[in-house]
Protein 1
Amino acid sequence: MDRKDEHVSLAKAFHKPKENSFDDVRIIHQSLPGSRCQETSIQTTLFGQTLATPFFINAMTGGSEKTGHINQSLAILARETNLMMATGSISAALRDPSVADSFKIARKELPNGLLLANIGAGTTLEEAKRGVDLFQADALQIHLNAPQELVMPEGDRDFTQWLTLIEEIVTHLAVPVIVKEVGFGMTRQTIQQLLNVGVQTIDVAGSGGTSFTQIENARRKKREFAYLNDFGLTTIESLLEANEIPMNFGLIASGGIRNAFDIFKALCLGADAVGVSGVILNHLMVNELEDTIALIKQWQQELHVLYTLVGAKETLDLKKTPLLLSGRNKDWCDARNIDWTKYSLR
């Protein structure tokens, strides 16, 4: 089986909505929100672009005939619901032009929408430029996935040039660059390293959803690395880390998003936008495309209600929402010297 097809099959097999760090974030209710649902705007701004909706379809797949059909459906979904979309890693298309159509189909179905191309952190500037041009991308995602590569039987083992290559791309590429994790989260130290080399938009992409160490371990004969299935920082822990950085930058949260309430909580914790992958992919694979379009439209309607619930007229207002952190989130704050009480005193 093609590796990309195998990834999709395993992601579907392992997908089960489960408890995660979002469950330990509570909204502190205010009885007089003073707001009106019809006046709320769920728009947000990211790398200078206005997004009609504060969540988007994050990087998933591509590189085979089967995954090309999935990208086509995802692009139609994005078009019909006015979402930004990221392709899966285009590295395969840069190596083998015969699979490029499995990614190009996204731009064909989404001619006027925002489309992000995705590459690995070991990619050169020249390859990044080729990828952006090939898919007419509005921005470039560079993914960080060291744990996945190390568990992957055929994965990379040398990460010494990653930061240097990222800096070169950020400095010379004509479109905005987003650096994202793939489900292992980020500490404030990692975020600061990226900001120091000029990165302006970061997707902390924590654990809690699809586990690529689990997927890659399932592809190994002996499956030696089961203890890394839940490796990394959660999305909430990563957002808490990001909030400790005294610099302004575009902050994206992804990893473990299950519904509109998770999106809402991530926005309350400082995210400018939220990437959704696994739950959309799974819904699309077990339902009709029309059903998934209806789900996304339902989430958009729910967000208007949730904004009104806390008196927010726009997305930026959500960062003032008082929150109560408990469980592992509070433990993380205590261990990492983060004042968790400031969230409840907003």
Protein 2
Amino acid sequence: MYSPAWPHSKINEIFPNIFFVTGTNITHHNNVELQHSRNMIIIRDDGNLSLINTVRLDDKGLAELDALGKVKNVIRIGAFHGRDDAFYLNRYDSKLWALKEMKHANNRQTDIELVPNGQMPVTNCSLFIFETSNYPEGILHIDQEGGILITCDSIKNWVSPDQFFSTETAEMYKEQGFFGTASVSNVWKQACNVNFSDFVKLKTLTFRHLLSAHGEPLLNNAYELVSKTIKQE
């Protein structure tokens, strides 16, 4: 029913009450096994935890998580993530927040829909939607530390392969141009058929940092680097 707890890092506090953990993802595409990294972001708000872009943790990792607070929300902002949502929803009896028309594994249903200017799972949080995307995809904006963007697949920061990649996948992704700072994957863009106008709207947000489902935290100069990427699109 659940994916295994594959190897992952410790939970690291990036900003006050905002945590980051990197783990392994293994999938199969066209009979080829792909193994790469993915990140989960954890926000603590008044002792309650919200998990974004879930990554299943092992027993040691779960103990670290439990020491931070009570898991209250699971938040899904990307159509191609969510394989570990059900594990956390069942373990903690938490609420599933998701974008409109999001389809979930394990017959789960969205508890609370995420909509712009609607109810948000955490304080100082707002939602940006890729309105032209073929599949639901959004970005959370946290009004903290000068502005933090939390993305799923839309903007990655895979600068280079890390320890959670297999050698084969790392080489394949290098050849396909997957690695870069504040990058937009051509594979994702083509699958979602996102219009350039959506990215231009991103520049109206105020932010300094980017925490993506893929890659390292991009700190302090995220606005400049995301703007540079958008200009090149």
Protein 3
Amino acid sequence: MPYASGSELSTAYARAREQGYGFVASNVTETNIMTGLVEGAERARSDLVLQVKRDSAAFAGRGDPRVGLEILGLTARKLGEAADVGVFLNVDHVPAEDREFLGACVESGIPSSIMVDASHEPFEENVERTRRAVELVDAHDADMLVEAELGMIKGMEGGVETTEAYYTDPEEAVEFVDRTGCDLLAVSIGTEHGVSKGRDLELRPDIARSVGDALADHGLDTPLVVHGSSGLSDDQVRDLLSTGVCKLNKNTRYQYEFARTACDFYRENESAIVPPAGVDDDRQGFFADTDWSPDKATFTPHRVCGDIRERIADVMVDVAELSGSAGESQFR
């Protein structure tokens, strides 16, 4: 099916809220992770929300995030066209002050949604910067949702560490959404960016429920998002989704699965790749003067990347089943 737009993503979120399930939005730092996620989503018959951040786009574009967005966006589009589930792309944590990259995201028409982050600013500044982003999307008539964040989440995100956190206030959330016109709101309920242990988190799922109720009481039908879900237990994820949160962001888990799968593969196959003791490690000569030679069938990147894709697909199936999105694709 075609790579999906913001209006279709809005329908997917509305359907999830009505049916009582959610999406685990999955960050992509490398294209084999993206491919594995699409394969897993197809197996689970779940629509898929991919996410890229500015630093990942810059890495893909040799330092230029605009080039990287084109590369990753084209990959997502082509994989989506070949998939039998919906594939969406959110650009995650775009710094609101980075007007150049924000403008490039909107003008490209690539994302299904963008997450504009001014949560570290005082309330009024957060409102103003988010409102300008919404106006930019509207001015370009872009079929693109805008996600914003109110509250502070601890941990490392985009190379910036936040050591303090505060929970989202429901009444502030009402004012924020009303004044900015954002399409989704990320709330702070005690999760953390990066590697965390669920038992060490001061989770407040009740805050998400209170924010959702306050918005509804004021006639604001705004889906809620929670960032930093990699360290949560299954029960904690179910608890959050029961509050009406329709999107949980996951990033660190996939990075770990990529590294762990590659590490396990090379440990198991070291003797097929690294010369034994007593053999010169002559990469230039490719070991022409020795009886030993590496095994190309093992060291080809396709072997380890194939394992990585399969592992990421397995994880995607698991998280789709946990979030309830498995078997719920609106395009099948």
